[in-house]
Amino acid sequence: MDSIEPEQTPFAAVSAQTSRWSRQYQAYLDKSTPYTTYRWTSTAALLILFLLRIVIAQGWYIVCYSLGIYLLNLFLAFLQPKFDPSLTHDEGLEDGDAASGLPVRHDEEFRPFIRRLPEFKFWYLMYQCTGPYW
Questions:
Q1: Contact (Cβ atoms closer than 8 angstroms) between residue 123 and residue 43
Q2: φ/ψ (deg, to 5) at 98
């Protein structure tokens, strides 16, 4: 005996479809994580296509300039450490003690360089701002 399911509202159907697409998109992102060279090569190609489009159209220079400033901001955030040991207000943020800093003796713990913006997030934001708009 088939039970009659209540009809799904249009909002619920759109929400379910959007949820399905976002899960698929996240799965593709997860699969692309180990392929760093291919990700950056495709992003560089998209950026070159975008700049070529700007040159051919002979316009939209302000948009290109603002995109360049944004990409520079992302790049600088990628190069900066998350916690700057030279600043006094950042001391002790990593593990909670006030005397944290660079190791001076051999028996102190080594703390690796932690980026303010991780590589994958840097790539993703760069791809997001150049990919869909070329």
A1: yes
A2: -80, -15
